[in-house]
Amino acid sequence: MNLKIFYNIFFILLINFSLIVDARELSIKQLQERKKADLERKKERDKRGKKAFQKEITIKNKIAFISKERETPPVLSNLDPIIEDEGFYGVKLAIEDNLTTGRFVGHDYMAEFHRILLKEDLNTEFEKLIKRGIKFFIVDLNEDELLSLMLIPEIKDVIVFNVRAKNDSLRNENCKKNFFHIPPSYSILSDALTQYLVKKKWKKWFLVTGPDKNDKLYSDALKKSAKKFNVKIKEEKIWDFTADLRRTAGKEVPIFTKVAKYDVLVVADEDGEFGEYLVYRTWDPRPVVGTQGLKPTSWHRTHEQWGATQMQNRFRRESGRWMTEVDYHAWTAVRALGETITRAQSNDVKKVQKYLLSDKFGLGAYKGVKVSFRSWNGQLRQPILLAAPRSMVSVSPQEGYIHPLSELDTLGKDKPESTCKF
Fold this sequence. Notes:
Blueprint: H1 2-23, H2 28-48, E1 59-68, H3 88-105, E2 107-116, H4 122-131, E3 136-140, H5 143-149, E4 159-162, E5 179-181, H6 186-199, E6 204-209, H7 213-228, E7 232-238, H8 249-256, E8 264-268, H9 275-278, E9 288-290, E10 295-297, H10 308-319, H11 325-344, H12 349-356, E11 363-364, E12 370-373, E13 380-381, E14 384-388, E15 391-396
């Protein structure tokens, strides 16, 4: 009898161990093996021909992904890869996901990828695509470029998904009803971080702000979050070093950070010009959070919960690299479109827009809860990951922060605070 019990326990443990191994992130070798298997399956599918639609195609959807050529800035480290295809594989995987349902209901999805060159005019090229009849756009552009697109007369007849710009102005005074914002705004990110710091009782901050425009915008959001959650900013400094600190950071940073007593160093350095130099070099032993150290983000390579591991591995097999925030935003935008067209049984711009902003819309996006759009400004409400470079630390909103409609609306500007007027 005892031997039988022992074998039963051993068998259960063996099964659980197997599940754990399967759930763990795949190694490079395993990814290559999976990719090889995927290619073999693709060859078999190609032999059989394209997957047939179970119903006659009644709705054809063409989506344009727009990015812009950039002058490549210097990187902090030669180890940092320069990614030229952000968003591409996110769209590609989302199209595959949309077609999984689309083939059964007669909805087809296709994507075009357009990279606007430095010598080309963004608005002119965008207008050409609108005149060709494209109604849905995923755009990897900054704030000024999005504001420029808003001036195109025909822009009101299409739907635009922003997958990069975090500026609060796009969700407030410069908002448009047909512009949907997948990235969390600076105010959402700063609130998500602040909630966690308050939970840890790290309520005395030393705030360091970079010299760029977006650094200042993020810093302003952090200051508003500090006021909102009753946090004290004990010291504030602007980073104005222009020299290369790779060899002198050990001398310069301790002097720069020798300030009044504080609990945590909060840094706003969007381009990553100096933030990494602050870690482990401060005068007092303090944690670093913000754009470096512990970072609030919509997606991170260490995220494994709620099916995210499968998504991470699937993306890596397809692209050979980690999924970035922009990749995730592009995937979410295309999936949101697919979910809406499936539910509304229409790709009419007005009907799609209305459904996206309604209470009916909800999308499973590997975050534990369904994500949805705020009806007052088109911002995607979503949980925010708080991640260190190699580990997931927490998810905001933190426990205890309540809201009459959605706890996710404790992050960023709620409807009464919004200055968006559709």
